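Re: weekly structure request thread

Next one in the queue (233 aa):
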Amino acid sequence: MIHHENSILINTIQTLISVDQVFEVRALGVARAYGSGTDVVSGFFQYDGQNAAEIAGKILKINNATGIYFTLNPVNPELLALGFNRLTISKTGGTTSDRDIIKRKFLPIDIDPIRKSGTSATDTQVQLAQKKARDVFAFLRAEGWADPVVAFSGNGFHLLYPINEGPDDGGVVKNILNVLAQKFDDHEVKIDTAVHNPARIMRLYGTVARKGDEVPQLQIYHRLSKIISLPSN
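Done, posted below.
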């Protein structure tokens, strides 16, 4: 399983991160080795075109987090000084803020099944989110949008549309997400309108989503996130 995760994570870095790009990795709900409670663990990595396996190996040493995430958009390289190609317990102010983003590289659409906070989705809920993602994909293609990167988050689906905008987009991304939510949200699946800010972290594909406990009799599982498809051109 670890080898499988490693190969998917390496592919994620090579696919979504540009050479010399700096990005933050942030692990939430990391159980402490001694005592009770959890920590946020974070660090900043610079992909040099050759070190994807090295980065993936460091990330996958964290196997007791509820979720591991990354910044989709390029981060100011100066933040490497907070944790240079390594992960450590995060301190106040030690993670990426909107002012630390250089540009917007992706417009993310996060399609998630509605469920109790802090729990993983059932198989049926995953299927409902997949159907909704296909509907959104088809609608935007019909509107003339280029195809996105499609990814499975472990509970729902992400459509990542490449863009090239400044961090301050005048509310364009926020407005697009609100319009899509009004059109596609229902009582079972919703589009997350909160992912509009430039420093938003998203599931790091190749890591496992571990919200809550697994309940096999209810088909509630911790699932491996992964990139499903890339634009054909």
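The mean pLDDT is 95. The first helix runs from residue 2 to 16.
Next request, please.
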